[in-house]
Amino acid sequence: MGYQIGKNLKRLIKRFNELIVGDLTLEEAKKRAAAFLPSFKRHCPHLLEEIKGVADGAEISLEEALLPNVRGGIHRIRACTAYVISGEATSENNTLIGQNQDLPRSMQEFGVILNLIPETGPQILMWTFAGLIGYQGLNEYGVAFFANSLPEPPLTAKIPPDKIRPGYMVKRLMLEQNSIDGVLKLLDRMNVYEAAFGQSNYVLRDECKIVDVELYSGGYEVLEDDGRGYIAHSNHYVSKNLQNLNLYVQDILGVPAEFDSIPRLKRLNELLERIKGEITVDALREILSDHYNYPRSICRHTDRDYVTIASIIAEPERRRMHICPGNPCRGRYYTYEMEG
Q1: 78-106+133-337 adopts what CATH topology?
Q2: Same fold for the domain at 2-72 and the one at 78-106+133-337?
Q3: Angle at 165 between CA 305 and CA 54, to 5 degrees
Q4: Which of 104, 211, 240, 322 meets the CB 3.0–4.6 Å disulfide criterion with 333?
Q5: What's the pLDDT tens digit per position in 161-194?
Q6: Helix axes 26-34, 10-21, angle to 10 degrees
Q7: How many CA atoms lie within 13 A of 236 on its CB side?
Q8: pLDDT for 320-332, tens place per residue?
């Protein structure tokens, strides 16, 4: 699988690496990437083998193939608005889950869709970036997740090598699980909240339930559906136990939470509540194109160079995703389905 990814995306991977390296030298970027090798060998050797295949297919070094897979440990990822909707809140009794992915505009050209069919483990449908083998999506068991960043205190010291976790590879491992309970056990086992990738929030669904998981430096909080039939999330902590961390929202968004993340989440909840019980894919397309609080809206436009580079609506029961490259208010959604 890795060799096919590397061979077919060779030019895109090389251009993506140039973006990742940025103002670093290639050697310094490769050195930072190599620091994650012990973690890959310890926690997910089968994925390291896949990345070696990417390197062979793209005709680059292993460290260069690692760069897309540790990007968040080199340059932090920010923003995004995510949601998960139970079948009871939709018109066809099918779960809907996804997000608007907000990143620098330069990232848009590197977005790709992977349909992974490993020799062992579930088939996976994933939206990701060229050369990155662990990101958001769904699997054939019906497990699906999408994510957004959360604030955290600035790092005051380097994370020791034995504390480094493989970051995006945890996302790939999440898509190898057959239930939300399996995902939570994985997070416990990996202590992923100690990673050098910043903090994340996950909206999750399996065949039985929907939840939201807020990670922080000491662990995570699980938010259950409170009876509304859906859970939405943006870039601040919702859990009462973690409200103090919202002081750091400005560090990731450039403005306090009340000017960006909070109104975005409030708006998404309002729009979902209006059509609860009648939510459809088409209705979500309209919601994800909303411009309330423009340009820091659900459909995000130029703001510190951050824009919506992809809008995603997944239907786990039907094993498919609808993806719009760029702002959904302007673009077209394309449908991708698992094989078989």
Answers
A1: Penicillin V Acylase; Chain A (3.60.60)
A2: no
A3: 70
A4: 322
A5: 666 777 899 999 999 999 999 999 999 988 765 5
A6: 100
A7: 22
A8: 999 999 999 999 9
Core vs surface per residue 158-195: b (16+ CB within 10 A) or e: eeeeeebbbbbbbbbbbbbbbbbebbbebbeebebbeb
H or E element at residue 249: helix 249-253
Nearest to 196 by CA among 228, 225, 160, 226: 160
User: Which pLDDT score is estimated for 155?
Assistant: 66
Strands of the sheet with 219-224, listed across from one edge:
111-116, 124-129, 136-139, 144-150, 199-205, 210-216, 219-224
Does the pTM surpass 0.85? The reply is yes
Angstrom distances, CA of residue 131 to CA of 56, 57, 236, 244, 300: 12, 10, 29, 36, 26
Within 10 Å of residue 156's Cβ, how many Cβ atoms? 5
The pLDDT assigned to 165 comes to 74
Angstrom distance (rounded) from CA 270 to CA 219: 30
Q: Which CATH number fits domain 2-72: 1.20.58, 1.10.10, 1.20.1260, 2.40.128?
A: 1.10.10
